[in-house]
Amino acid sequence: MKRIAVALGLMLASTTTLTAVAAPPPPATSAAAPLIERAKFFGNPSRTQGKLSPDGKWLSWIAPRDGVLNVWVAPASDPTQAKALTAEKARPIRQHFWSPDSKMVLFINDKGGDENFVLYGVTVATGVQRTLTPQEKTRVDIVGTSHRIKDRILVGLNNRDPKWFDVYSLDLAKGALTLVFKNEGYAGFTADEDLKLRLAGKSRPDGGTDFFRVVDNKVESQPLGDVGLDDSLTTNPMGYTADGKTLYWIDSRGRDTAALIAQDAATGATKVVGQSAKADVGDVLADPKTGVVQAYSVDYLRTEWTALDPKIGAELDFLKAQLKGDIHVTSRTEDDSAWIVVVDPVTAPAATYRFDRKAHTLTKLFVNRPELEGADLAAMHPVEIKARDGLTLVSYLTLPAGADGKGDSHPDQPLPLVLFVHGGPWARDSYGYSGYHQWLANRGYAVLSVNYRGSTGFGKNFITAGNLQWGRKMHDDLIDAVDWAVSQGITTKDKVAIMGGSYGGYATLAGVTFTPDTFACGVDIVGPSNLETLLKTIPPYWEAGKQQFYKRMGDPTTEDGRTLLRNASPLYKAAAIKKPLLIGQGANDPRVNQAESDQIVTAMKGKNIPVTYILFPDEGHGFARPENSIAFNAAAEQFLGACLGGRAEPFGTAFKGSSITVPDGAKFTPGLEAALAAK
């Protein structure tokens, strides 16, 4: 099923001279667990993303080849006969999928984080790789695939107009592209099993979306339905059943939380298939042949599945009984005889299994990070925190292994805490293994992640409560969570750091500027500092979502909106910074341009306020290359250790293979200058 979705998310005074602080003694509880090398958290996984080909004959996964993540393939009957199918030398492959005819593995990749994703295909029998979308400065979007039509797929390309994706039929064997629909302003499309466009979404000036039927590649003049701003992030079509008679929606119209809705394509009649009063329906399991939804999930504190098909319910019950942890069905053969199942125990690395439905047997295929097996990993605790205005903030707390001697989710004594803020902001934190939570907990910190207002998954009212609240009530929620942690004895007010990427990076900058006495230090990864310049430089292919940004952040085309954005921009409060700050940025970031970090670094230097600024010339919005993640986090743990007193692994060879540069402030992070000199 292919959803229409508007992509919103960035996953989007004093002149006192400060010096690097000396590291306080580490927390007493941090010695309970051996130090785990950061490369085990942030290096390449041994294997990940296992998938079965539709015909069930092949098994694919992503694994390192000469240190770079590539696609590997093996006969499903004998995974030991694996071979590398791709040979990427620089940029890791992070997504792959099978062609409908099982003859080809498809994957997308960009250059240096520029997000101009190109589609590639590799024929399994010959190993020949073809660039299927070779256009320059173009981004590909997968519009539709089919179990019925196996020799082609539908793709969207924005090479004609960078704002809009024209729809093409792609002949997989020949690599030929045939124009299906010239797009003059539609946000997205839904196709059926015949690869016919059936639905088009068009953004409205109020931030909502109108949906139109498409007949013979022509859009009807009157909308089939309309979605207002409040419902725009919680209402989207999921796709059609194979017979084309039913259209599934995730839909919050007329309600708060988004329900799973089945709509009769002919009459327009709808019925509720699945719902929850606490959280949105998030994902579904659908029959590979018919497209009929068999189960749906809801993620409040943790993900819970509800089966609509008794047979699927029995299978899910069997998997839960056999596997200890949260279960994810990630791949199904076309005849549905075999599944790929991933289990996430949180306190152990995720494992991937093949589930043979006929024999009712589970075969363990691989563990994604076997180097973490037997390690002292920490439990994650879902908690509900009340904001000052009564909103409930679903949050996740991780404590160092051995710190919770009483087993009551509270440390035996207060610990330094890292408030780790998710990006988006229209995204969410969920229960599950987190490399950042585990790494920071192993260093002796309590780690808290908060679903502040504006986060998705908890109904449209929770999202709407975050409108125009960047740096305001959204930030208040983070402060309320810190106060909660202090009141619970988890930490003390002087031992809290803030860290995050994208919006989480913005929250870090907001934390050290708007509330300069709350946090002991901050780590900002690709965070915007100036919301006006951020909105001026969003990628052109986000045109369909631009009005939503304006309505939810502030409208830069009006004076009131510009005032709102300026008041919420940490750049203009940079003089208030009095605590240590570490910034990480990718030079090719198309979402949060390098200028966002450059601006605040320049402002701080102008006021003689120290800052460590790390820049990666081959990265974009976040760090895809593990060598760069390891390098940045090596600096981050030294920085946090000096600030909060946690443990830190020596730099050692952390910069090996990394493109790390430090344009400013290496001297303000302990050991960084020496490590750079050694590199």
Automatic annotation (TrEMBL):
InterPro entries: 6-blade_b-propeller_TolB-like, AB_hydrolase_fold, Peptidase_S9_cat, Peptidase_S9A. Residues 1-22 form the signal peptide. It comes from Nitrospirillum iridis. This is Dipeptidyl aminopeptidase/acylaminoacyl peptidase. Residues 435-646 form the Peptidase S9 prolyl oligopeptidase catalytic domain. Transmembrane segments: none annotated. Pfam families: Peptidase_S9. GO terms for molecular function: aminopeptidase activity; serine-type endopeptidase activity. GO terms for biological process: proteolysis. Keywords: Aminopeptidase, Hydrolase, Protease, Signal. SUPFAM superfamilies: alpha/beta-Hydrolases (SSF53474), DPP6 N-terminal domain-like (SSF82171). It comes from the Bacteria. PANTHER family: DIPEPTIDYL PEPTIDASE FAMILY MEMBER 6 (PTHR42776:SF27), SERINE PEPTIDASE S9 FAMILY MEMBER (PTHR42776).
